[in-house]
Amino acid sequence: MDNTRRRVLRGASAAGAVFAAFATGALKPSDALAITWDKSAFEAKSMVDALKALHVSSATDSKDIVIRAPDIAENGAVVPIDITSNIPGTESISLFIEKNPFPYVGTFDMTKGAVPYVHVRVKVGQSSPVRVVVTAGGKHYQAVKDVKVTIGGCGG
Amino acid sequence: MRKSLTTLAVACAAFLATSAFGQTPEEVKKGVEQYREMLELGNPAELYALKGEALFKKKRGPKNASLEQCDFGKGPGVLKGVYAEMPRYFADTGKVQDLESRLVTCMVQLQGISEKDATKRPFGNADKPSENEQLVAYIVSQSYGDPINIKLDNPKMKEAYEIGKRLFFYRAGPWDFSCATCHAEENTRIRLQDLPVLSSPAGAKAAMTTWPAYRVSNSQLKTMEWRINDCYRQMRFPEPNFISDSVIALTTYLAYTANGGVYKGPGIKR
Amino acid sequence: MGDPMKIRARMQGDVAEVRVLMGHPMETGQRKGSDGKIIPAHFIKQIRAELNGKVVFEAAISQAISRNPLFAFKVKGAKAGDKLSITWEDNKGDKRTDTVTISG
Fold first, then answer.
1. Residue A154: its chain B contacts at CB < 8 A?
2. Are B93 and B177 part of one and the same domain?
3. In angstroms, rounded to a whole number, what is the distance separating the alpha carbons of residues A149 and C94?
């Protein structure tokens, strides 16, 4: 447990190293250390920069990624999003709200015994595409769903 | 009456301009329903209830006592189902009390806390919830699944019901509003929120079985006292005092109208 | 320290369905307080779930997760009676672990 804690606490440089190792194929995903908090990706202000920071150069559109989110969210402070990946060998699920000031919301690791599914609630600043990137077998796949946001003001 | 409804529509910029989304009202309605359904998966009101339980059982006040012996109408220490039967008449105080006023009574009687201290911060905010809200969340969750059952078996209860009913229809304030202006006509809404017809059993049940509730818009648990207080604020009335006889009377009217509805709170709302 | 979590873990077939509510402000660092000053960012960065002491689920997240976060996920290889613990850690180094027994 303490080992894990130390691993998850590793900084951005460690994260970079892990992703670089992925990219060169030197490290199989199953050998990867515990998930890291990738500062450069989280602080990226655009989709392009966030993906670049995560070393996702291209992602194939996939119908095997199912995003369930409301078409219209009454309040952007809480937008429920349900993600299922039916892609065999799914290693991780990453979520992006494209029009948020910092689009990258997070990555969920699926290599240690979790079924490739996660439900989260996120803040969505304005109507935006919700993008999910799944990594499987060293490749990236993606799906997008639009969510419209209205802020209920008058109702108190 | 017609005039006041027009005023309402203008005042609240009511009725969402659905064209803004390029969708039909039916599509908007479906989208919103889907949103609300997805919220049901988990309710942060449970976090308030956890804290409320700890507060309830903690020895506090000059008498260094917990609230565990508080009598909410079914005997000291009984919590199961009590909220579904409140407001109710209490012989020891000679008053009709809602949950929140009864909590104050118990803090005064059991813990020796002054009424002033017990009522000084009934409503909190997201950063600092009030203890009242946490205690309420805990106690109402013990009535989940119980039918609302308000009995007008006492002159004081009958009186509270009649006063509450009159308050519901009483028009005043700068906009000449009453509760009924928004809540006694079918198919009214403010933006995307359909307004329940609270003078009908169906509408009253829908509201009274789901309040108190966690409001996702401000990340807070809101109590029934707050709900009524805020309706008065929105109508630009002077806001009623916390646990005042008028709020308790109005709650009695609404809860009695909701009799038979199965309590499912605390709820979660947009 | 942090506030207690509310965790539900229940077997559904051969998979444990887990739902967890965490009490946390998830402050973005972009909001102004009543005094007009920016409220510093304060949010959970890491989440980890362990099944009988073995890590089974992990996440790295941002301040875009809503206040008082809810997460649901599913864990393979669990059975009723197993211990499931969840840990979060925030950007101020605060952390919290809560444990439940998986129900049948």
1. 12-14, 190-191
2. no
3. 32
Contact between B38 and A151 using a beta-carbon 8 Å cutoff:
no
CB-based contact (8 Å) between B190 and chain A? Answer: yes
- Options 2.60.40.2470, 1.20.1250.20, 3.40.50.720, 3.40.50.300; CATH of A2-149: 2.60.40.2470
Distance in angstroms (rounded) separating the CA atoms of residues B27 and B38? 17
Verify whether the Cβ–Cβ distance A105 to C57 is below 8 Å: no
Contacts of B27 in chain A (CB under 8 A): 71
Chain pair A-B, CB pairs under 8 angstroms: 66
Looking at the partner chain, which of B16, B31, B234 has a beta carbon nearest the beta carbon of A156?
A: B234
Give this prediction's pTM: 0.84
| Residue A122 distance to chain B (closest CA, Å) | 11
Residues B68 and B120 placed together within one structural domain of the fold: yes
Q: B224-234 vs B99-111: helix axis angle to the nearest 10?
A: 130
Q: Which residue has the tokens 């609404």?
A: B254
Q: Render pLDDT for A58-82 as a digit per residue (tens, 0 to 9).
A: 999 999 999 999 998 888 999 999 9
Instruction: For residue range A87-128, list pLDDT tens digits in order.
Output: 999 999 999 999 999 999 999 999 999 999 999 999 999 999
Architecture of domain C6-27+41-101: Sandwich (2.60)
